[in-house]
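Researcher: Sequence recovery benchmark, item below. Answer with residues only.
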């Protein structure tokens, strides 16, 4: 992703940015950064290392940490950079600056969506957007699996089993992520090796358990999104099956149609994709619901950066930790694939929507068109073809 050779980057003297310089940069990135988590991480690498604001080693450490932890990768990396430069204040202000533009944009979209969703023109736009979202979610599942599972057949088996369970049960089971992670530990760091490796129990497992236990103490909406942020491994769209299970099937806060629209809004706006939580929160409980949902989904990320990050970096090469992440990510990929099938049943309802979905998948796989462009194209096609 670097635009300059690594040896040239290494010669750049470190000139750490002031707190407000860093905040200003992430405010701009949050307002104009499109392309999803990998693209956003690439922008940080491209912009911050040549300026001397962080070193290449610090960036790579932060990226490794963000890839190993649950929650949105780009937001986690941004908070990490703020933390290593300016401590808790840096993590806090950088996180707020990075998330705020997307939050405000989604609140505005939510307002107009609630006010005008009954109009035929809005129904027509989302008639075309739905199949495009299905194509993007399906492609995300395959891409995530290829990049993290690779050629390891045992992890592909986990992927397939979780996908099948999700499709058959029509639910996404968060416990499967933990079970898959534990299977990964047994495969890559069996108990016989624990004494030789210092009998490490990764701090991340303790953190997950603690966050899950405190969630019932929060109000229902915030508690749900805290769990979503704490147990979502993989890309930004990895949150889709978890959200679908909760907001559509368990709590019945949103219909299938509204949920797909929420995912679309998260994709077309800048910043982290999990800002979808804001849209869901607004539809459930208005402006306060949007704030609570957004705060809840990013709270685990913030706590991981402040209290877990240093230990993850210290033990990131430990087979037990790497095994857990492998297993949990394979399960997340399978859950996304299963969710794509379930959501597709409600969105691909006739020949035109099926054609939109297939063409979108071809465009994103072969020509790698940006996802927001696909969404906007689907809206135009839907407007033309929709018959009410």
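Model:
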């Amino acid at each position: 992703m670097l635009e300059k050779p690594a040896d040239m980057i290494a010669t750049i003297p470190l000139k750490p940015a002031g707190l407000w310089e860093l905040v200003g940069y992430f405010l701009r990135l949050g307002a104009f950064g499109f392309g999803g988590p990998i693209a956003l991480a690439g922008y940080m690498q491209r912009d911050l290392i040549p300026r001397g604001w962080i070193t290449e080693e610090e960036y790579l450490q932060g990226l490794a940490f963000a890839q190993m932890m649950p929650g949105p990768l780009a937001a986690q990396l941004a908070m990490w950079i703020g933390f290593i430069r300016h401590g808790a204040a840096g993590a806090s202000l950088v996180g707020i600056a990075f998330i705020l533009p997307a939050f405000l944009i989604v609140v505005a979209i939510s307002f107009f969506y609630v006010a005008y969703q009954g109009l035929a023109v809005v129904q027509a736009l989302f008639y075309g957007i739905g199949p495009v979202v299905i194509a993007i979610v399906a492609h995300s599942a395959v891409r995530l699996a290829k990049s993290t599972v690779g050629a390891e057949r045992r992890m592909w088996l986990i992927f397939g089993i979780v996908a099948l369970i999700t499709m058959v049960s029509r639910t996404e089971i968060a416990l499967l992520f933990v079970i898959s992670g534990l299977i990964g530990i047994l495969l890559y760091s069996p108990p016989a090796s624990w004494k030789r490796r210092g009998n490490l129990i990764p701090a991340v497992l303790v953190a997950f358990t603690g966050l899950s236990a405190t969630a019932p103490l929060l109000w229902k909406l915030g508690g749900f999104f805290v769990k979503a942020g704490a147990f979502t491994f993989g890309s930004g769209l990895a949150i889709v099956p978890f959200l679908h299970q909760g907001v559509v099937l368990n709590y019945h806060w949103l219909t299938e149609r509204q949920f797909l629209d929420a995912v679309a809004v998260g994709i077309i706006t800048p910043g982290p994709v999990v800002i979808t939580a804001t849209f869901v929160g607004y539809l459930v409980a208005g402006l306060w619901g949007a704030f609570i949902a957004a705060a809840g989904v990013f709270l685990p990320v913030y706590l991981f950066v402040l209290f877990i990050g240093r230990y993850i970096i210290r033990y990131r090469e430990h087979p037990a930790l790497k095994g857990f992440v492998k297993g949990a990510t394979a399960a997340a990929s399978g859950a996304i694939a299963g969710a794509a099938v379930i959501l597709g049943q409600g969105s691909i309802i006739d020949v035109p929507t099926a054609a939109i979905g297939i063409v979108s998948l071809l465009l994103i796989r072969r020509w790698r068109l940006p996802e927001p462009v696909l969404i906007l194209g689907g809206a135009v096609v839907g407007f033309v073809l929709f018959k009410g």
